[in-house]
Amino acid sequence: MIFGIPLQAFLGQLLIGLINGSFYALLSLGLAIIFGLLRVINFAHGAQYMLGAFFAWMLLSYFGIGYWPALIVAPLAVGLVGAVIERTMLRRLYTLDPLYGLLFTFGLALTIEGTFRYLYGASGQPYATPAALAGGTNLGFMFLPVYRGWVIAFSLVVCIGTWLVIEKTKLGSYLRAATENPILVQSFGINVPFLLTLTYALGAALAALAGVLAAPIYQVSPLMGSNIIIVVFAVVVVGGMGSIMGAIITGYLLGVAEGLTKVFYPEASNIVIFVIMAIVLLIRPAGLFGRDV
Amino acid sequence: MTLTLDIDKPREKKPVVAQTIFLAAGLALLVLAPLFFYPVFLMKLLCFALFACAFNLLLGYTGLLSFGHAAFFGGAAYFTAHAVKEWGLPPELGILVGVAGAAFLGAIIGFLAIRRQGIYFAMITLALAQMFYFFCLQAEFTKGEDGIQSVPRGHLFGFIDLSQSANMYYFVLGVFIIGVAIIWRIIHSPFGMILKSIRENETRAVSLGYSVRNYKLAAFVMSAALTGLAGGVKALVFQFATLTDVSWQMSGEVILMTLLGGIGTLIGPLFGAGLVVTLQNYLATSEFPVTIITGLVFMVCVLLFRRGIVGEFYNSRLGRKLGFEHRH
Predict the structure, then answer these.
(1) DSSP assignment letter at A267
(2) Looking at CA atoms only, how far is residue B95 from chain A in angstroms?
(3) Higher-scoring residue by pLDDT: A139, B49
(4) pLDDT tens digits, A51-108
(5) Are B236 and B151 in contact (CB under 8 A)?
(6) Fold (CATH) for A7-121+143-283
(7) Any residues with CB less than 8 A from the CB of B177 and at least 6 apart, and which?
(8) Cβ contact B13:B316 at 8 Å
């Protein structure tokens, strides 16, 4: 018993919090990467997350291609779509006020979501947990479904991996330099427009990866993206988009905070992240890890 | 409703004549419209037009993109519906309750949101409005998923029966004209000039000694209150208030109306609202989802058409000849 709550229920909600936190972290990480270089808030991030889940579902139902290949194929496909969008349309908006990027990607999100709703209806499609990760293990103090453990571990690996790529590799150093001063970097002979395309594709692919991970947990539905994206925006405001690691940590923290609120005061669980955002704005307007923009 | 905007030089005489004719023709059209169109459709259009004009006060004249105006629109609809139905208030007082409630919400959301700028401002307003959505979903007085149904229209000032659709239409038209007149007054006042200076160059406005924060907050509250006026009237027109009006899709719709009509033009949002409402009515009977069209129009507007319909007209040769000035 913790504060009068059975340990089982407490740990169960903590686990759900960590799962949600994994998705918040993956999504806010992608948003932060895209924003860092492109100065665009990618409103279509939720739609790309939904696309990832849907591609996985389509691969399985139309072609019989299972979870493991989908984990690679779906993000690649969504990344490719992202690259095309960046090349053909988004690119024209870089010289304008960043608000136009937000409005454009908002329109893009509506279009993608509307199309899938038209084709597949608003209700969700179930996606079976892959056989290798089915079932659960008893940890002694709680029962852990294997797939949920996998999601937490894998998303942590992806987050840290992405952070390492950006902080420790040559490509990452180009990215960071281009974030600071794109003109100077270009004058050193680095293909900045290509970096921009690559960044947008990478961000979209990360969102799609989160979508594939989410498919067996939540139902695959056209609305799954817009439900989560607004929360992720709040996460990004809390974390501040100045730091990649900040986005990751804030994602997990807020997921856990949400899970714990479900234990103690369930009615407030779907607004707690917004409340935390309001408090952070009052105390530290730049966000926990942010530099003022 | 005068069509001039951003006047930097003294107006010449001829354009004023042209604009007066435009204004008179527009008014005559609105007065006679119920002879040709379905009144509920016209009233819906006027409500959304006022909503979009109020929104544009913030986006077009102060340069703040709020992604949460549905909270004020739908919130006011709930407040008015509740006041009229449960408290038995007459319609004019009910609408005032809606306006006051929206202004109060605007003060809270605005106070938090103006602590950040640009993109963050948009995200914060979106998040806070979503929080209000969840509040409405769970609160007692909003009746959850059902919404507040069969709201009586009542008698205006105790003797004008608003259940007659002609009476209701001219009441809505009156509110619309008053609302737009207030907006016109605000943007042509010294206060409005300061708002525009914040839009153009915030740092400079600060260095000139204006407390930009207070001005932004004031603009935000005014925009929220006028949005509430539109929302309250809408609750009476349709006689219900539901979650649709507080959802983020509604915030997106008003942005689209403004963008399509012309950001920073007084009457652009009116045209934008007209187009969007007409389109929705047209598509309502078909299977095809409005969202796809809305999204595509958004993308096309942002990519090719950022001045909007009225803005493009102002910028065209004919528009300039008639003395319309527009920068954006």
Answers:
(1) G
(2) 28
(3) B49
(4) 999 999 999 989 988 889 999 999 999 999 999 999 999 988 888 888 899 999 999 9
(5) yes
(6) ABC transporter involved in vitamin B12 uptake, BtuC (1.10.3470)
(7) B1, B27
(8) no
CB contact at 8 A, B178 and B184? no
Q: Closest residue of A to B304, CA-based?
A: A92
Q: How many C-beta neighbours within 10 Å does residue A244 have?
A: 23
Q: What is the mean pLDDT of residues B142-152?
A: 81
Q: Does the beta-carbon distance from B115 to A285 stay under 8 Å?
A: yes
| Residues 6 or more apart whose Cβ sits within 8 Å of residue A45 | A27, A30, A31, A34, A105, A203, A204, A207, A225, A229, A232
B116's tokens? 């950040």
Cβ separation of A271 and B294 shorter than 8 Å?
A: no
Question: For residue A234, is pLDDT > 60?
Answer: yes
The neighbouring-strand residues paired with B148 are: B241
CB B252, CB A108: distance < 8 Å: no
3-state SS, residue B270: helix
pTM: 0.89
pLDDT, chain B, mean: 86
Res. A6: pLDDT tops 90: no
Site of tokens 């419209």: B33
Out of B116, B119, B303, closest to residue A99 by CB: B119
pLDDT at residue B81 tops 80: yes
Q: What are phi and psi of B57, to 5 degrees?
A: -55, -35
Of all residues in chain B, the percent with pLDDT exceeding 90 is: 43
Q: How far is CA B141 from CA A150, B76, B94, in A?
A: 43, 13, 15
Q: What's the CA gap between B164 and A84, in Å, rounded?
A: 55
The ipTM (two decimal places) reads: 0.88
- Amino acid residing at A63: F
A114–chain B Cβ distance below 8 A for any pair: yes
Say what the pLDDT of residue B8 is.
Answer: 46
- For residue B296, list chain A residues with Cβ-Cβ distance below 8 A: 107, 111
Query: Per DSSP, what are the bridge partners of residue B258?
Result: none
Q: Identify the residue among B56, B131, B297 best suited for mutation to test binding to A, counting A beta carbons within 10 A and taking the highest.
A: B131
